[in-house]
Amino acid sequence: MAWSHRTGRGLNAAFRLSHMTNKKDVLRPSLWTPRPVDETIAVYADWADNYDADVSARGYKTPDRLATALKAHTTPDVAILDFGCGTGIGGAALRRAGFKTIDGTDVTVEMLDKATKRGIYRKTWHSSPDNMGFDVGAYPVIIAVGVVSLGAAPPQTLAPLVAQLNTDGLLALSFNDPTLNDQSYIDALDAEVSKGRVEIIFRDHGPHLEDVGMGSDVIILRRL
Ligand SMILES: C[S@@+](CC[C@H](N)C(=O)[O-])C[C@H]1O[C@@H](n2cnc3c(N)ncnc32)[C@H](O)[C@@H]1O
Predict the structure, then answer these.
(1) Among the atoms of ligand 1, which is closest to the Cα of residue 144?
(2) Domain ranges of the chain
(3) Start-to-end CA span in the chain (Å)
């Protein structure tokens, strides 16, 4: 299958598959929709125990794609913040890619607890949408895998996240197909570029939840 958010083929295939089989059904079809932050946190709190099994059963590829892409743009000893770390799947992918110093934060305690228990993060903390809990410039690299996304953090999260970087800092993030089809996220990214706050140094569309035919863009931004 060609991975194209322009045609939306991946997403359509996912919904087709969801009607064909329960085993490879699309993940929580109601997930990818805008909702108030309290509801978002409740969704992930409820999902925490089953999240890893649910996404791995559907071939969750974006974390490893992002970690591999990041390797070409920074060094293994750099301090990385896994923003919206969830249960720690992104941190684990960074570890596999050779990164050694990784901190994590998330707004959902139940997800964050799973990440902390992995024992791969230098430190973790509970953040809130209004307070990310770290100083500007504290991290030369931030990743946000599936976080600034439909069904998770709103597009308005992107600008403050970019603002946490010093010049030349990197933000590696992903937009899945539903997010790529939501103009508000595209506009948020375009605004950061057109205002001269970032440049896109890497962008690639590939598998997200591979077994249900959903893709994602992995994007690396450099702070200007
Ligand atoms: C789809 S999960 C991705 C988790 C992890 N990055 C991964 O790839 O498995 C989205 C995560 O974003 C978190 N989240 C939602 N809004 C957030 C915000 N404003 N700030 C930080 N994390 C947020 C949720 O609690 C959830 O853990």
Answers:
(1) 6
(2) 7-223
(3) 36
Backbone torsions φ then ψ of 139, nearest 5 degrees: -125, 125
Q: Write out the DSSP string of 49-69.
A: HHHHHHHHTTTB-HHHHHHHH
Note the pLDDT tens digit of each residue in 119-141.
999 999 999 999 999 999 999 99
Which DSSP helix (H) or strand (E) runs through 93?
A: helix 89-96
Domain 7-223: which topology? Rossmann fold (3.40.50)
Cα 164 to chain centroid distance, Å, stands at 17
Q: Whose CA is nearest to atom 23 of ligand 1?
A: 84
- Check if 44 has its Cβ closer than 6 Å to any atom of ligand 1: yes
Closest atom of ligand 1 to 51 CA is: 9
Q: Whose CA is nearest to atom 4 of ligand 1?
A: 86
pTM for the full predicted model: 0.90
Helix (H) or strand (E) holding 71: helix 62-71
pLDDT per position as a tens digit, 41-70: 999 999 999 999 999 999 999 999 999 999
Nearest-atom number in ligand 1 for the CA of 41 is 25
CB hemisphere CA count around 101 (13 angstroms):
11
